[in-house]
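With this grant's support, we have settled on a layout for protein records. An illustrative entry appears below exactly as we store it:
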Amino acid sequence: MSYQPIEPFPRQTFPTQVHFDRSELSVIMSLYGRMVAAGEWRDYGMSSLRELAVFAVFRRTAEHPLYRIEKRPKLRHKQGQYAVVGTDGQILKRGKDLKAVLRVLERKLIRSVE
């Protein structure tokens, strides 16, 4: 019988690339569809990188993104793994719940009716 030492703090393994899963994309695409219908957004792009996944939103295709929705799994126990980043790189909202983080963008849909 061979002895296997027990590792007191098992290492967390992260995938080689970070992706949005189906439920996360469903929430993001729901917001995206409403913003397209309102005429605010026109295009999007997705990137899956080693440490983060990015969903970038554009007003026109050839521009810099208006907003970036980022997922960083390594921050899930600290500030939260989801963040909305503005054009200038400022973090508008960060948290553990994607729907709560995306509420900062839903405010753009509320307009006063004259």
